[in-house]
Amino acid sequence: MQQEQNQQNPNIQQPKPMEQVPNIVSTKDELYITDMLSWNLNACKKAHFFAQQCQTPELQQALEDAGQMHQRHYDKILEHLNTSSQKMN
User: Fold this and answer.
1) How confident is the model at residue 88 (pLDDT cuts 50, 70, 90)?
2) Are 71 and 45 in contact (CB under 8 A)?
3) Residues 31, 33, 37, CA angle at the centre, nearest 5°?
4) pLDDT tens, 43-72?
5) How many CB atoms lie within 10 A of CB 43?
6) What residue spans of the chain are helical by DSSP H?
7) What is the structure's pLDDT at 10?
8) Cα(84)–Cα(69) distance, rounded to whole angstroms?
9) Rg, the chain, Cα only
10) Contact 43/64 with Cβ under 8 angstroms?
11) For the whole prediction, is pTM greater than 0.90?
12) How far apart, in whole angstroms, are the C-alpha atoms of residue 44 and residue 57?
């Protein structure tokens, strides 16, 4: 639909992608990063809790694996934040 409109009106300029990422984090970005950290930490804790309650070894292992995956995601987000923070200083 957007392409059809642009073909009909060639004077409409397409927004250009950023050449470089800005050195700031907006409030909206910060809130989303906080949410991502919370989601991953919560999922990690819940998976571990339910794995401890589980009687089936295969299911218990799957839950532990899921919890570890969320822990890795949480750690990776923190790693990115720490790397970005060091580059700014």
Assistant:
1) low
2) no
3) 115
4) 999 999 999 999 999 999 999 999 999 999
5) 17
6) 2-8, 27-53, 57-88
7) 66
8) 23
9) 21
10) no
11) no
12) 18
Tokens coding 50: 């339910």
Task: Give, in order, the Cα–Cα distances in Å from 43 to each of 8, 14, 48, 81.
Answer: 48, 39, 9, 20
Tokens 């392409």, residue located: 3
CB-CB neighbours of 40 under 10 Å: 20
What pLDDT, on the 0 to 100 scale, is given for residue 5? 53
- The dihedral over CA atoms of 27, 88, 82, 34, expressed in degrees to the nearest 10, equals 0
Of the candidates 76, 75, 66, which has an alpha carbon nearest to the alpha carbon of residue 44? 66
pLDDT tens per residue, range 10-51:
678 888 887 887 778 889 999 999 999 999 999 999 999 999
SS3 21: coil
The residue with greater pLDDT, 7 or 30, is 30
